[in-house]
């Protein structure tokens, strides 16, 4: 990563050539060995950190004029905090490889003449002049150590740089998915959206299963670009081709999961069950519960009422410990109804997407990514009144 970025970005190359201790940590530029004076006039050493926004695989740009600083408050020759740095206390989680850089504050010093820095070289030079100037004058400090700290960054599960995570400063929260192996069972309307959301979540592996073919009606209830050549192909092939350029660790198989599907579920840490037939669901639940895999089952029921569609969207969570208790509450259909052949099976894309959203949000609550106020195991969203009714107390 180091050589690639330096060779494709002139401003980063100039920083290295001038002697700055440049390093890169996922989506951040780090410049170590920045001298400064503390409140007692003692020379200290800190580090500057700036966000990298990737234009493509090789080129980067700044996000804004701000930087982060690993160190205490820099002081001037007069023993007072250096003025016009703005910002304030701030925390930023970097990777394990850069654990020596502990960000404590942010600085905001916009250049008066232009209102923006020309590039990273301009930005770092400006902040070093302000922060290190007193230490250079009083202690003969030198920020140009020509030290290269080239980390072997951990391989990303994505084939593109995840700049959203660093820009939102949620790297520590996203790391909570790194050991997950997720199964998405069923790629109908809701399952297709669940897959889309999970593909963009940095879980270690995704396994998805659907034996059906991809028809025109599926195109109206699935995310992404549609190609005519996809119609009539297995859904597994369609979605594998649609997402394999986005991430590693994705496998979509044209298989039917039932109580005998133990091997396919080995190592799975969480599953989403997205099927609309009760008999199929029963076998899937048997398989997941036998292996003590926690899972979420989704469902939707729509009908015409007063000339419009009404109904419910359901998300039901089965923990490894309480799966049988939840199953006994008969919240999900486990058998085919006699009149299924006459059923209209109405499903609409936005409700499929909503169903998937609620399911994935609930999963991310379980991982600590989102706040969880109550251990909900069942959520029902009513179309007519736009309200969610939830249950959290189990016997």
What does the model show?
The protein is of the alpha+beta class. The protein folds into 2 domains: 2-157, no CATH class; 171-391, 3-Layer(aba) Sandwich (Rossmann fold), CATH 3.40.50. The protein is 27% helix and 23% strand. The protein has 11 helices and 16 strands. The protein has helices spanning 2-8, 10-18, 120-139, 163-168, 171-174, 189-199, 216-219, 235-243, 278-290, 323-328, 349-366; strands at residues 21-25, 28-37, 43-51, 53-54, 60-61, 66-70, 88-89, 105-108, 181-185, 205-209, 250-253, 270-273, 295-305, 308-318, 378-382, 387-391. The strands form 3 sheets. An 8-stranded mixed sheet has the order 11-10-9-12-13-14-15-16, with helices on both faces. Strand 2 (28-37) and strand 3 form a beta hairpin. Helix 1 crosses helix 2 and helix 2 (10-18) packs parallel to helix 3 (120-139). The model has no long low-confidence stretch (mean pLDDT 91).
């Amino acid at each position: 990563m180091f050589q690639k970025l330096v060779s494709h970005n002139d401003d980063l190359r100039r920083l290295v050539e001038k002697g700055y201790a440049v390093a890169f940590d996922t989506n951040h530029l780090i410049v170590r060995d920045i001298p400064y004076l503390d409140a007692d006039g003692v020379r200290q050493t800190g580090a500057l950190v700036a966000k990298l926004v990737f234009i493509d695989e090789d080129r980067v740009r700044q996000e804004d004029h701000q930087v982060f600083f690993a160190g205490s408050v820099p002081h001037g020759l007069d023993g007072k905090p250096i003025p016009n740095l703005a910002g304030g206390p701030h925390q930023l989680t970097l990777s394990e490889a850069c654990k020596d850089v502990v960000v404590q504050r942010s600085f905001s010093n916009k250049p008066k003449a232009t209102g923006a820095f020309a590039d990273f070289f301009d930005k770092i030079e400006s902040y070093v002049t302000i922060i290190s100037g007193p230490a250079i004058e009083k202690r003969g400090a030198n920020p140009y150590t020509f030290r290269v700290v080239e980390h072997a960054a951990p391989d990303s599960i994505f084939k593109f740089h995840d700049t959203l995570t660093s820009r939102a400063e949620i790297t520590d929260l996203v790391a909570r998915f790194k050991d997950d192996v997720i199964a998405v069972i069923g790629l109908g309307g809701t399952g297709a959206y669940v897959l889309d959301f999970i593909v963009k979540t940095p879980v270690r592996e995704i396994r998805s299963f659907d034996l059906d073919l991809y028809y025109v009606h599926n195109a109206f209830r699935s995310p992404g670009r549609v190609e005519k050549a996809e119609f009539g192909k297995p859904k597994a092939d369609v979605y594998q081709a649609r997402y394999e350029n986005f991430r590693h660790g994705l496998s979509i198989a044209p298989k039917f999961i039932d109580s005998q599907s133990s091997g396919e579920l080995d190592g799975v840490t969480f599953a989403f069950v997205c099927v609309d037939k009760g008999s199929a669901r029963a076998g899937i639940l048997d398989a997941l519960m036998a292996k003590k895999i926690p899972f979420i089952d989704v469902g939707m029921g729509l009908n015409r009422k007063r000339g419009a569609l009404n109904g419910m969207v359901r998300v039901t969570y089965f923990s490894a410990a309480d799966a049988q208790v939840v199953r006994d509450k008969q919240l999900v259909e486990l058998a085919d109804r006699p009149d299924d052949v006459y059923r209209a099976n109405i499903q609409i894309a936005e409700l499929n997407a909503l169903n998937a959203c609620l399911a994935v949000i609930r999963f991310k609550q379980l991982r600590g990514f989102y706040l969880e106020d109550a251990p909900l195991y069942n959520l029902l969203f009513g179309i007519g009144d736009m309200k969610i009714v939830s249950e959290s107390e189990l016997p």
